[in-house]
Amino acid sequence: DGKIKITGDQFDSVAFKNTIGENGQAQTWSKAENSIVEDGKTFEVYTNSGDESLKVKVDREYPFNCVNSKI
Hints:
The chain is mainly beta. It is built from no helices and 9 strands. The strands form 3 sheets. Strands 1, 5, 6, 7 and 8 form a 5-stranded mixed sheet that branches. A two-stranded parallel sheet has the order 2-9. Strands 3-4 form a two-stranded antiparallel sheet.
């Protein structure tokens, strides 16, 4: 369904890599302004400009190091 949920602990990190699509357009990751709560956990939601239906939910309970890697 185009959704990925990531949980972890204080030793984990998540990296999002920006890419260039086949059409030559940049496909960049961005964090939504509002977090969401599911099953009592709070998640930050990231989407990709190349496919807005793709969502990655990152557990906010732990101090994840979310990095947006540039190409």
